Amino acid sequence: MKIGELARRTGVSERSLRYYEQQNLLTSTRTPGGQREYPESAVDRVIRIQELFAAGLPSRKIALMLPCLRDSDGGPSEIATPLLVEDLKKERERIDRMIADLHNTRDVLDDVIEAAEG
């Protein structure tokens, strides 16, 4: 598929898709005319990349992770290294801290709303 179709199917801009390629997160082949062509599996790959960016992971960590994930189900592949696993555990802990902070912020907002309504 061409870059425009991949962008349409994933909701990701063409500019972002080109950035993903620059960061070695996504690959394409080229037509004789120089246009990018992506396999069907690129849809799942782009969705996975978006999920990882949304979790706050930087592109360099995503680049290390992607070879260790199966695109279709996001499960681990057999090539995940112990060092990568430790790094990912640290990321999970960071995300857990962010979630806890958000819960605390919501609780404060609930108190303010209750006081304002009551």
From TrEMBL:
This is MerR family transcriptional regulator. Coiled coil: none annotated. SMART domains: HTH_MERR. The keyword Glycoprotein does not apply. InterPro entries: DNA-bd_dom_put_sf, MerR-type_HTH_dom, MerR_fam. Keywords: DNA-binding. Residues 1-68 form the HTH merR-type domain. Pfam families: MerR_1. Gene3D superfamilies: 1.10.1660.10. It comes from Lentzea flava.
